[in-house]
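Hi support team,

I've been running sequence recovery on a batch of backbones for a student project. Most finish fine, but this one hangs at about 90% for roughly twenty minutes before it completes. I'm not sure whether the input is malformed or the queue is just slow. I've pasted the structure tokens below so you can try to reproduce it. Let me know if you need the job ID as well.

Thanks,
M.K.
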């Protein structure tokens, strides 16, 4: 999941070198934390959170085959 979020985020931002993704596994759920440059925050979140919601949907669909719950946090 970490790699998927990283690829999506790097394709959206102007400063891909500042994208940091960490993954923490707790039981049946995985928490993926995404950090980007402050100037790129709006590009990752999108208008009314639409891009963030789309990222979460894609990751959730990819995790469904592993029977895991994934939470994507944008920091």
């Amino acid at each position: 999941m970490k790699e998927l979020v990283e690829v999506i985020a790097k394709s959206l931002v102007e400063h891909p070198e500042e994208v940091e993704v960490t993954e923490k596994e707790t039981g049946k759920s995985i928490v993926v934390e995404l950090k980007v440059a402050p100037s790129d925050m709006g590009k990752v979140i999108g208008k009314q959170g639409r891009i963030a919601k789309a990222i979460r949907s894609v990751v959730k669909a990819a995790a469904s085959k592993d029977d895991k719950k994934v939470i994507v946090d944008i920091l």
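--
Follow-up from support: It reproduced on our side and the slowdown came from queue contention, not your input. Strands lie at 20-26, 29-35, 69-74. No action needed from you.
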